[in-house]
Specification:
2 strands, 58 residues, alpha+beta, two-stranded antiparallel ribbon
């Protein structure tokens, strides 16, 4: 099997499917996905903190 990927967009959902038999490629993509999730979580937390400050809870 070679390395391949496909993306799907529909109904407000975005999907990426990645397949490979190369473990290093797999770990590289896994790390990129985790980084994207971590950055999104940080952005949500920052927005929540701003909202709490605005409302006087902090």
């Amino acid at each position: 099997m070679s390395t391949s990927w496909k993306s799907q967009i529909g109904g407000g959902v975005f999907r990426i499917q990645f397949e490979t038999n190369n473990f290093n490629y797999y770990k590289m993509v896994e790390k990129a996905c985790q980084k994207a999730i971590d950055e999104a979580d940080k952005a949500k937390e920052k927005a929540r903190a701003v909202q709490m400050r605005t409302l006087g809870h902090l």
